């Protein structure tokens, strides 16, 4: 199904207003991406180019660069969440559940939401059996948390033409890959519609630090600029803002303080709700427009 067959164009100013409970003006949610990189495969991303070029195997320096995030960076970031009592959504590879069980237990202890993020960190177009991958990811999350995940984020936001259909068939209720709005929206599938919860490529440490090569403070600067504009936009109808982080990027020692500084500013706003993806979903299902006909 083409994207334009799943969702029709809808100008945000032409919609009925959405109101958050308790007089809140906008929602902010934070997504922490935890992945397992298979040392036997080419690395999903690299920080160091091999002297002779190509994709060496094993690629120890780039594998270790990512591994640092789960060994050290995550725990450094966790202190920020604890200090500000922030909820979070953990977007996690199914294979990472067993590989990084202490991270899983830390997230469970804090009642974080668990989101499916592919069974391995590979483009969904390269997965041999996409539906099985989606199902396996949900199964392993349910086994360790006792709860089936409601949300999905594709590795690198990748999808096939069938992904939303398969997600719905496997019981997922929302997806985050469609970065096209500041409010949740409905996507049609071959069965019943699925909700897309706003995600971001702008306040995303992969885009900023690894692709655009900004200095560490850009994450804070852009997050505050984006927050101020969306806060203004939300005067008449609620908006959703996402902050996306990876332990191997924002958990690096020279970047962490700029992540922390964000909450010195926005946590002081009494009319801002810090939520998880499934909380945003529940709110939208309650007050938003009804699902379109299949």
TrEMBL record:
NodB homology domain mapped to chain residues: 73-175
UniProt keyword terms in alphabetical order: Hydrolase
Keyword Ribosomal protein included in the entry's annotation: no
One MF annotation (Gene Ontology) recorded for this entry: hydrolase activity, acting on carbon-nitrogen (but not peptide) bonds
Pfam families xref list: Polysacc_deac_1
Record flagged with keyword Mitochondrion: no
Ranges annotated as spanning the membrane: none
GO-annotated biological processes: carbohydrate metabolic process
Function according to Swiss-Prot or TrEMBL: Is involved in generating a small heat-stable compound (Nod), an acylated oligomer of N-acetylglucosamine, that stimulates mitosis in various plant protoplasts.
Similarity comment text for this entry: Belongs to the polysaccharide deacetylase family.
Name listed for the protein in its UniProt record: Chitooligosaccharide deacetylase
Species whose genome carries this gene: Bradyrhizobium ivorense
